[in-house]
Amino acid sequence: MRADARRNLDKIVAAAAEVMAERGVGAPMEAVARRAGVGVGTLYRRFPDRNALIVAVGDHYVHTMAQALDEATRRTRDAWSAVRDFVSWAAEPGRAALATALAELPQETIVDRAEFARAREQWVRQLGGLVSRAQAEGSMRTDVGVDDLIHLLNVFTCHPGTLPEPVAADPGRYLRLMLDGMKATAATHAPPG
Amino acid sequence: MRADARRNLDKIVAAAAEVMAERGVGAPMEAVARRAGVGVGTLYRRFPDRNALIVAVGDHYVHTMAQALDEATRRTRDAWSAVRDFVSWAAEPGRAALATALAELPQETIVDRAEFARAREQWVRQLGGLVSRAQAEGSMRTDVGVDDLIHLLNVFTCHPGTLPEPVAADPGRYLRLMLDGMKATAATHAPPG
DNA sequence: CGCTAAGTGGAATGCAGAATTCCGGTTACG
DNA sequence: CGTAACCGGAATTCTGCATTCCACTTAGCG
């Protein structure tokens, strides 16, 4: 594969991640091409159909996510701070793009891609471990779980286009509000059941 | 106006509210018609264009909202509980529909409808008063405001289609988490500056 | 009960925007 | 330099929605 082709391919995946975050996985192929600074022809040569592109974005996402989680874990002593750090990182602009894959793909095509599933499962478990530790350390409510965390991450991070503008502008602020609600001291209500 | 026509008109507004909540104000007219159980012809006879329909939905929304707020305020002594009550009410299934109007209309057409603007302003102010009282009573963080509350309501209540399924299924749970994060005791961070 | 104006559904039409193809023109690199 | 690998984007086809129109029903008056 020629060097320039390789470069374009990377640009395309990055662009696709961004565009799909903004407009959903069904975003026009041409929008992706334009954002990547290539022609539609180039896009189609590399990714025969939309699914192929989605798969690429999904892989990219899962990989990046796991890596960030690793770092957050390694950097901090207490679990709660690590969770906080990771969430803040994930909410940063540009990261948003990646989450779309996670949010919308399950219904599409990636689910049955073993490799993707495994990678995703890995970082979810990793985050889950952190949550458990935080709860064991008594710094996090026990009536919320990893899934809640992930869902909320998705809510504030996917489809920025459908979010009220101020929220889209600083999802981190709201995510942190959410985290404050998840702290052990914040619990006011009986656990669900 | 014939009785059956009247019935259909009501069904249409209700359906439009639902559909617009799910798919945005630009939702296909046919989808609205189908949901309402009428033909597109009927829809167009009553509402010559999309705007007319949006206006109807918007009015319906604002009116319902103000009323609910009234009740919540009247029913409870302390402001924080009233806020809680109102938010819970607004998150109930079926209510979601209405919020879209608020979230997307300003850029569209309704803004210049004095009546709508006034009604909206009224209930926002009303909720704002509640928030101020809650803060004065020391039960709510002072680094968040009415706008935050409204934005979050919109996030969890509009476009249920773009929300992760569990969140769409019970937005109230997450909204309450959020409220817990807004309680005075939950503040961990310096107010934004 | 019968009449008719009011009301109805949905097929038909027109169009905007997106998907996908194709190929004459470039460019990396042996 | 030569050429196989790449490009961009015009051209064409496809899809989905808005909007119109009219033959068919029905509420409700006399």
UniProtKB/TrEMBL annotation, chains A, B:
DNA-binding residue intervals: 28-47
PROSITE patterns named among the record's database cross-references: HTH_TETR_2 (PS50977)
Coiled-coil regions listed in the entry: none
UniProt GO MF annotations: DNA-binding transcription factor activity; transcription cis-regulatory region binding
Keywords, in A-Z order: DNA-binding, Transcription, Transcription regulation
Domain annotation HTH tetR-type: ranges: 6-65
Name assigned to this protein: TetR/AcrR family transcriptional regulator
Origin species: Nonomuraea diastatica
